[in-house]
Inverse folding.
């Protein structure tokens, strides 16, 4: 819809106060399934919503239409972008729209690693006045941290995914072993299972020079109390003792304990998943999508024999799970701010998050939703993820992430291939400092 037509609709509607919109959002969330009568389009504020395409029992378009039907003040036009598997195309499409500063789209979804870029460029509206600190406690803390840039909330949590540990329940039972809480426990259990001949591989992960390698690195480093960037995001920390020790551990899984095959250095998610669901491995680090495959007899040899748990940690550390998922943003140039906030409030409400979980299989970012009885009945696996997501850790938060991630990938990959872990990580850290302008 043209800007002229949108302006005409607004002038015909008259001003709508923030309090009225936010009050309406609560009613909208509760009325989403009731089929409330739809007002004429000419009586509504028109906004647009751009999002990557997601698949499930319902489409994103159907969820948006439920919002349109739930209230009579705002009408949302949904603009579908490619699926997250084509993230580069999604990113390019969003940037091309936002850089024009025309106000379209009013609301958008974004990969969690784009948040700092969008905020740093001034494209994302700060949301603090609409979602104060008290409201943010309703979300996983790691998600709120990932949605915050320069101490301002510039995105609102939508759905979460993270790394997790898959394990063979039957193999652990046969070995008399518990689910490992530390990396040392995982190594000893994996070695014992391999020695018994009941599994070819002890532990599978993703060492390919790609974004997933950054995710694996974030997890193992954070589980040792380390980080890739300094707390203020202005310098690198990849060359720290804790980071070096963590990446050395990954190298050792291949070359010392030999619980991981050297093939992991060329594997991303799917190549690492296949031996596990094929029955050849005791442990696997991967994302939530693996569980449904593991329970499908058509593609799995381990149906009913797979458990999931938080990833292990080093002694004295805490489990860390690298954050994935898409989050909501509001265009800083929107001409319909209150309407955008109303829609955003509805989309991130407990009722709508439950709807996304049940209909699209998207994991909620509100811990309370995991306690819903309907979710436990229809998506029992998802209820297990609450403990995993508590340790969710964002990737480096910086508007220069696109450059920083390449430096991390290159440095960590070289360290894992050569074994010169300290030297390669220190060199990569120098490159990160140069990118950040230190």
């Amino acid at each position: 819809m043209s800007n002229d037509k949108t302006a005409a609709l607004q002038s015909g509607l008259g001003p709508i106060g923030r309090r009225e919109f936010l009050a309406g959002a609560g009613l909208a969330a509760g009325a989403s399934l009731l089929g409330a009568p739809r007002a004429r389009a000419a009586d509504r504020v028109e906004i647009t919503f751009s999002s990557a395409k997601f698949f499930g029992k319902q489409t994103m378009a159907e969820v948006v239409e439920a919002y349109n039907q739930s209230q009579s003040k705002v009408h949302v036009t949904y603009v579908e972008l490619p699926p997250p598997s084509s993230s580069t195309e999604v990113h390019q499409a969003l940037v091309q729209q936002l850089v024009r500063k025309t106000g379209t789209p009013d609301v958008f979804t974004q990969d969690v690693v784009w948040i700092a870029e969008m905020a740093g460029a001034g494209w994302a509206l700060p949301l603090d006045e609409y979602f104060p600190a008290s409201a943010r406690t309703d979300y996983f803390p790691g998600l709120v941290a990932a949605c915050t840039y320069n101490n301002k909330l510039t995105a609102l949590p939508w759905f979460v995914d993270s790394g997790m540990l898959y394990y063979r329940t039957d193999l652990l039972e046969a070995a008399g072993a518990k689910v490992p809480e530390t990396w040392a426990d995982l190594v000893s259990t994996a070695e014992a299972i391999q020695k018994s001949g009941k599994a070819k591989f002890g532990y599978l992960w993703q060492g390919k020079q790609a974004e997933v390698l950054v995710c694996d690195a974030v997890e193992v480093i954070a589980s040792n109390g380390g980080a890739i960037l300094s707390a203020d995001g202005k310098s690198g920390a990849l060359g720290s003792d804790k980071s070096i020790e963590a990446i050395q551990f990954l190298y050792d899984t291949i070359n010392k304990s030999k619980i991981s095959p050297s093939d992991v250095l060329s594997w991303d998610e799917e190549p690492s998943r296949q031996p596990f669901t094929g029955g050849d491995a005791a442990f696997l680090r991967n994302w939530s999508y693996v569980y449904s495959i593991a329970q499908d007899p058509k593609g799995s040899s381990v149906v009913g024999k797979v458990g999931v748990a938080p990833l292990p940690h080093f002694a004295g550390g805490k489990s860390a799970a690298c954050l994935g998922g898409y989050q909501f943003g509001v265009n800083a140039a929107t001409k319909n701010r209150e309407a955008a906030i109303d829609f955003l409030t509805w989309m991130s409400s407990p009722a709508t998050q439950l709807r996304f979980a049940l209909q699209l299989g998207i994991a909620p970012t509100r811990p309370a939703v995991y306690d819903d009885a309907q979710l436990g009945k229809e998506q029992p696996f998802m209820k297990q993820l609450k403990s995993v997501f508590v340790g969710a850790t964002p990737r480096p938060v910086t508007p220069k992430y696109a450059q920083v991630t390449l430096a991390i990938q290159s440095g960590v990959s070289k360290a894992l291939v050569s074994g010169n872990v300290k030297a390669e990580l220190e060199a990569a850290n120098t490159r990160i400092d140069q990118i950040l302008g230190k």
User: Anything to note?
Assistant: The first helix runs from residue 3 to 13. The first strand starts at residue 45 and ends at 52.
